Hints:
- With 355 residues, the protein is an alpha/beta fold.
- It has helices at 14-25, 32-49, 74-83, 85-90, 98-104, 106-112, 121-132, 135-138, 154-161, 167-177, 190-201, 211-214, 217-221, 224-235, 245-250, 252-260, 279-290, 297-307, 322-337, 349-354, and strands at 63-66, 93-96, 142-146, 181-187, 240-244.
Amino acid sequence: MLEKVIIPEPQDNPDRVAAENHLVGTLQERSMEEKVTIWMKRLTAYIHRTGLLPRSRRIRKPFHLHLGVHKTGTTYCQTVLLLNKHKLEAKQITYWDLAHTRRHLTPYLLRLSRKNGEPPVMECVQRIRSQVFAPDVLKGKRAIISDENLLGFIVDIVRRKGYHALVKKLVAMRDVLGGEVRVFLTIRSYADFISSMYCELVTTKPYFSFEEIRHGKFVTELSWLRLYRALAKVFGRHNVVIFEYDLLFSQPSEHMCYLAGARIDFEFPGKGIRVSPSAKAVEHIGMLSQDGSAMSVRKMVVEANRKFPKNADNPAFDPWTPEERARLDERYRKHLKRIPRWHPGKARAIDREDE
């Protein structure tokens, strides 16, 4: 368990050993957030003392860490970045494509922040270091990393955790990456976000209906304001950029330039990356999942969208009553007023940075 983690200390400084062991001894008297902060400080110190991440090699150039959230056009942004990778490289910006990130970074950062027991520090940090501090990353002005799964997987978020159990995970990201980390996050209205999340979740097994989450904690406790405050506490308010989902498609060029931190003439794909399913398509996917179909998830979705394409006769999936949607929209408006957000005018600031 967390309070039992004892990291080896050098023997030439008994005062520091006694002080830090005193902190461990009093962990039971502290809040979970304080426990996590103490644990991560000790982890970072251990990494530097053992030479796994020498201070002289900590990255000085900023990372742009794009964390999603899920169902807010993240795949679209990743496709645009990949399509314009040569233009980014011309500006000395390294973009890690999604396949590279999910193979070499995401699983190791998630393992560093797991709850049960001491994580495999040596293996995880060495693997991250070999990728993050590789010459092709260090040579540019900055590196862009984009993966919505760094915040967790959809199944875990909806069924169990929400976005609230994040402090330990975010601290691990900040301390292992080192240097300046600037975080980018896109948010959208709660009603539309939850509906879209369920459309993704309905393809997983075991199947469960929307009624099982309608009144659950994921719906009742979802808060972008709480997520923003967690990010601001770990990375600093000036390093957290919040985008609104609607502006991604109404002002795509300004949005992508600010995410990249450079004025670039981006090329965009000719159409949207994903088409949201109709209500009948969602029902059909659920029926196939519930019946234990051996069909792959991709085939389920393709078949459902082919049989029930979204059109005037087959409207988009919308499980809310007018009263429920009104309550969720009101909560979103209240939270939005208290969250500092990006607006297209801010894109002009990068012109000076780019010169």
